[in-house]
């Protein structure tokens, strides 16, 4: 796992590295700037293109000035540096780097309060105005400058973080923030980069390493963790010799209505493909032919209109309930019966989440360790409207602890929130997967993993990873515009076995 730090902890890690590596702060800045430039020169090879580097007077600005010197040394011909001297304060590292730059033949402008803004018409703008030191929303001269830069037709490349963007905490939707086409960030993505609010401000993200003390970073025990492939490799279990279908559990998927049988088919197929020993789908009577036709390996329990099906609950290892189930009286009765009859962790998705939202009394029957998989709207239906994703994280933390459940808040970087206040950000998946039925697949995968005796936490972490990874394996190398859930399902065993190789 990659621990994700708050801005305040990043400063601690900077300071710790300076004190214990040891390395002078100015040399750490040199290392960061070099890492930026290393990536930049490989991707922007045109040395005649106009490059304007906008620098504040803190350490982000210090990076900017050092970057200007390094680009000059690399032979970039059309550089200019614009210093935003909007405050009388500057850091030592900024001052030293500015003195070094002044020895070179790079055009340099100092902007002061009230000055006219320089004109930018094309080329590249490097944003080194403010970084993780941001301590209040932009206003005054900074705001005016960033608004202007957002209006010009240049490629914007931000150093570490777009100016005005908070690394963590709430993002005000009305705040002025630099819109970067590319952010080259130091050491690790900042937490807010992984939340949808970063969408308008970060076109593309690149992380470059600057050698901060990893042991120290781990010792901070951050609740925010980014899941990496090596974690999944360590968690996935091989199928052993002399095992049989009984070894891999029996999952029951309660899903579908006549009009939404697709959801039942997708989640139960995904469950079978993700390795459950046996999968049974509890479906409406008139969906039986479709099920037998689509996935003969999946067994059926049919639901007759308004009647509760007769189910031998204890024989199932786990139950997933909700995809396409509807919220009518019969569905509510069935959901209530599941919660009353089953005490092992279940997966609660889609309409089961909606029923829980409108019948909060049911919460007390939700088995401990169960997994809820809401998308953002379901999350808000369950826990109330939220103004920001940061707020959702805080609510999710309280509610997961309160009910002793795992909340899988779905989005680009799906977040598993645990009862012990940890946040696991998934690092796979892509926009080609934005297609109806994709969440039904995830539900089936998580149920399959629970059936195979993975813990609830691992079922969430592995489930999200392999779901997104299968989507990446299909979409990225083949440049697919859209990946449909049905196709993703058949990729799952391939993805899983690759991760065990
Ligand atoms: N050794 C290291 O530490 C390394 C650091 N590195 C680099 O340093 C960056 C962090 O640098 P930093 O801490 O100096 O802060 P930075 O973002 O430049 O801001 C400067 C000052 O701006 C001010 N300010 C804040 N908000 C404001 C606002 N809204 N409007 C106006 N002013 C505002 C505030 O000053 P104040 O208002 O408190 O006087 C603040 O202190 C980091 O992103 C990375 O690029 C790398 O080189 C690796 C090594
Ligand atoms: N733009 C995207 N980037 C990454 N993953 C996505 C994207 N859009 C959707 N997904 C994934 O697809 C799934 C969609 O779930 P959900 O909205 O519940 O779909 P449905 O209700 O249609 O089954 C989630 O797991 C989500 O992470
Ligand atoms: K910046």
Descriptive overview:
The chain has 2 domains: 2-222, YjeF N-terminal domain (Rossmann fold, 3-Layer(aba) Sandwich), CATH 3.40.50.10260; 229-375 and 419-500, UDP-N-acetylmuramoyl-L-alanine:D-glutamate ligase, CATH 3.40.1190.20. With 501 residues, it is α/β, with parallel strands linked by helices. Helix 8 crosses helix 14 (438-451) and helix 14 packs across helix 15. The radius of gyration is 26 Å and the shape is elongated. The chain has an 11-stranded mixed beta sheet with strand order 1-9-18-17-16-15-14-13-10-11-12. A 7-stranded parallel beta sheet has the order 4-3-2-5-6-7-8. 40% of the residues lie in helices and 15% in strands. InterPro entries: Carbohydrate_kinase_pred_CS, CARKD, Nnr, Ribokinase-like, YjeF_N_dom, YjeF_N_dom_sf. It catalyses: (6S)-NADHX + ADP = AMP + phosphate + NADH + H(+); (6S)-NADPHX + ADP = AMP + phosphate + NADPH + H(+); (6R)-NADPHX = (6S)-NADPHX; (6R)-NADHX = (6S)-NADHX. Its cofactor is K(+); Mg(2+). Homotetramer.
Secondary-structure map:
Blueprint: E1 2-3, H1 7-20, H2 25-43, E2 51-55, H3 59-73, E3 79-85, H4 92-102, E4 108-112, E5 124-128, H5 140-151, E6 155-159, E7 182-186, E8 205-208, H6 214-219, E9 224-226, H7 229-235, E10 250-254, H8 261-273, E11 278-284, H9 288-294, E12 299-303, E13 318-321, H10 329-341, E14 347-348, H11 350-358, E15 371-372, H12 376-383, H13 389-403, E16 406-409, E17 415-417, E18 423-425, H14 438-451, H15 456-478, H16 485-500
Helix pairs in contact: 2-3, 3-4, 8-14, 8-16, 11-12, 14-15, 15-16
Bound molecules: ligand NPW, adenosine-5'-diphosphate and potassium ion.
